[in-house]
Amino acid sequence: MNEKPILVIDGIEKSFPGVKALIDVSLDLRQGEVHAVCGENGAGKSTLMKIICGVYQPDGGNMILNGEDYSIQNPNDAYARGIAIIYQESSLFPELTVLENIFMGHEMQKPITPLLKMIKINDYPSMRRRASAIFERLGMDIDLDAIVSNLGVATKQMIEIAKALTFDSPILILDEPTAALTSKEVDTLFGTIRKLKTEGHSMLYISHRLDEIFEVCDRVTVLRDGQFIKTEDVAKTNRDKLVTWMVGRNLDTLYPKIEVDIGDVIFEARGLNQEGILNNIDFNLRKGEILGIAGLAGAGRTELALAVCGLTKLDSGELYLNNTKVSFPNYRSAQKHGVDYISEDRKTFGLVLEMSVKVNLTQKLQPKISNIFGIIRRNEEDLYTEDSIKKMDIKTPDSDFIVENLSGGNQQKVSVAKALVIDPQILILDEPTRGVDVGAKSELHRIISTLASEGRSIILISSDLPEILGMCDRVFVMKEGRMAGEVMRGEMSQEKILGMAL
Amino acid sequence: MSLIKKPKLTREGLLAIIVAAFILFLSLTTNFSSKSGIYSFMLDVSPTMVAAIGLSMIIFTGNIDISAGTISGFVAYTAGALVKAGAPMIIFVPAAILVGTLLAGLNGYLTVKFKVPSIVVTLAMNMVHVGFYATFLPQSGWIENLGPRFTWFGRARLFGIIPYTFLVAVVVAAIFIFIMAYSKFGKKLYAVGGNVQSAVYSGINPDRIVIKVFFIEGFLIGISALLRALTRNEVMPSMFIGRELFFISAALVGGVSIFGGSGKITGAVLGAMFVYLITIAMIYLGFQDYYQFALQGIIILIAVFITVADFSNWKKKRLKASEGAV
User: Fold this and answer.
1) Across the interface, do A182 and B326 touch by the CB < 8 Å criterion?
2) What is the pLDDT of residue B62?
3) Which residues of B touch A95 (CB under 8 A)?
4) Residue B214 is part of a domain; what is its CATH number?
5) What domain count does chain B have?
6) Of the candidates A107, A129, A135, which has its C-beta nearest B187's C-beta?
7) Cβ B1–A141 below 8 Å, yes or no?
8) Could you tell me if A70 lies within 8 Å of chain B, comparing CB atoms?
9) B9 in any annotated domain
């Protein structure tokens, strides 16, 4: 490894409406190193990468590449200067072939005939040869003419890497590359990363999975709430130090759990089946309990929640509420019985982003506060809105503020407040703190604890194991649509839960 | 890993077989295969073929042009008016095509500039155009007795059977099939329609692509309108009102996904033929115009059902594929 940095990032600033995403962030990338950038969700990792790749323009600070000023306007400039990114969310075109995908936007071309040099056409034979060579380098056999939508997640990830390699970029950025991979696929990916490293590529590796950082990375830079915390050699640090830097506070304030006397079983599910998705699932929920549901992405956690609330149809299975058999043919009937669900994707399913805080908060309230002609009684609406904003401590200039411009944490508080309108006895929260900054996270946790202490029962679906450990009285672990195990609060550990989930 | 594509039956291949079977069926059961039958089929299908190519390219990017029919009216009027003023073909043809290009380009510009969905922009423009015909064009744009200087090309035939207009349509189709397969631009259309975010990440400027594709569509609408207008001795812009439905249905029947991001020019060309074969079959069977319209509508519905069905399958397939990988 060469000590001389090839990319220097100095004092980068970036704001979005309602949130400061990056405040004075600096880091340097050396030739041939794998440099981890870690931090919690919302720490600003992805924003920083998008700035390096030209998707966003920084508000301040500067970047230097190989000793020259590196200021770019769009992703093409970044590729041209030798920086390629492998995005967290699939950036592939589902209806196109593998070959078309990896050369999208930078197809190799040749003159249509030797005589007409002006007119260039796509040179498919050359692209094929090039693509074959790259996949061979990655040790992967793939049909270049396969339509991408028919391929698995891991294959898509490799295609993304192949796409980045077509640019011959000395610098590669991997944004959460393992998020959707199984452990075996992760090993293959790490093999590829080590190989690319020996070939002289420098890599920025974005991840919040600490084990991976210790496995493949040379140095690590920690961000917290958009701020630069520290850059350190991986060899000179350890897991605990990293966590302290990332979280910046101890766990007690992050997981303010209130001890509650847990009551009788209030809700029970027996033998829930949904073909290919849920496989014979039994579970129960007690009054005042926070029940965690852990598992990998795709294990069927969200699908279970949807099925329980009548948002999707069960093939078979029975639900009991207070020992009486119930069935929820649709979501409305679940809500009538006091069961409510808060989606993991608040931006798509939870909120109407373009509307005001007030409109969002009172969505489910409208039948209660309107007269027989369906006209809403404004004063009650205002009263309720002000009350919710105060109770949830939603940080908004006023109740007519557009929800889209609130920070993630405050958006999530609006989602929760909205669900509370129907006074649910059972509340299913799906990844409530995803993409939320640390401060808001601890506030949301406090809200969840309070709800449980009021005698409500909570089902908390989360991929964030510390959150499960910190908040839940009991956790169910799901794996491939089945219940893989159950752990009580006293016996919980990350290793135990992960062992069941994998 | 082979360097040569393996042939397999695509949606377009299937449609080609259906079209061929249809032609065979009509030839055996009617006098479709007579000289006049084939001639009139080629003559009728040419304008729709060319316009369907233009609409397909728009739809690839996830946009639509509801005003394609009414733009055609302006194209035809421009050509007719210039001929009446004594302009030769070398003037009135490019001028008329330019009018089409600019009007569609304006649609693209408004769509991008004001971030209004193209269906809204072009629906509004459709109404503006129709109003314009009646208000500002002399005699609502009717021009009669244009004479052979206008009609000679539209009525000329090669070997006494192939209309020149069909030759134009075939050449246009060949050029655009080539462009979509072998140009950077062609791939970008699918990228913009398939996943705008990724297109941006791939260094594509979606706004610029959308404006360009509207200009190109306008150019093709210009050619299409002339192919139809030049066969007649008079022009009346109103005869083009509603034509866009045929263009769009040809594209959709040809497997172009209304969601954008997928489809083939070949499909649109075959779709245009299919739509006309249905019409001809109904004429032979003695159905009236309105039945033909109804059937046309049903065919569009079926075509869209197929794309939607594909779409939901796609999710399932993807799930299966990812499970397979795990």
Assistant:
1) yes
2) 93
3) 190, 194, 257, 261-262
4) 1.10.3470
5) 1
6) A107
7) yes
8) no
9) no
The C-alpha of B280 sits at a distance from chain A's nearest C-alpha, in angstroms, of: 34
Nearest chain B Cα to A49, which residue? Answer: B201
Strand partners, A281: A272
A2 touches chain B (CB under 8 A): no
Write the CA distances from B235 to A273, A405, B99, B140, B312, integer angstroms: 66, 54, 16, 10, 45
- Residues with Cβ < 8 Å from B34, sequence gap 6 or more? none
Report helix, strand or coil for A379.
helix
Q: Are B11 and B307 a contacting pair, CB within 8 Å? A: no
Within a domain: residue B183? yes
Domain ranges across chain A: 5-252, 258-338+424-502, 352-421
**Whether B187 and A100 lie within 8 Å, measured CB to CB:** yes
Q: Do domains A5-252 and A258-338+424-502 have the same CATH topology?
A: yes
CA atoms of A38 and A224, how far apart (whole Å): 9
**Residue B204's closest chain A neighbor by CA?**
A105
The pLDDT tens digits of the residues spanning A116-152 come to: 777 888 888 899 999 999 888 877 788 898 888 888 7
In this predicted complex, what is the ipTM?
A: 0.73
So what's the pLDDT on residue A150?
82
CATH class of the region A5-252? alpha beta
Domain of residue B138 covers: 33-306
Average pLDDT, integer, range A161-184: 82
**Nearest CB to A55: which of B184, B200, B326?**
B200
Tell me if B149 sits within 8 A of B230, measured CB to CB. Answer: no
The CATH number corresponding to A258-338+424-502 among 3.40.50.300, 3.30.420.40, 3.20.20.70, 3.40.640.10 equals 3.40.50.300
- Taking only the tens place, the pLDDT of each residue in A52-96 is 988 888 888 888 888 888 888 888 888 888 888 887 666 788 888
DSSP one-letter code for B141? G
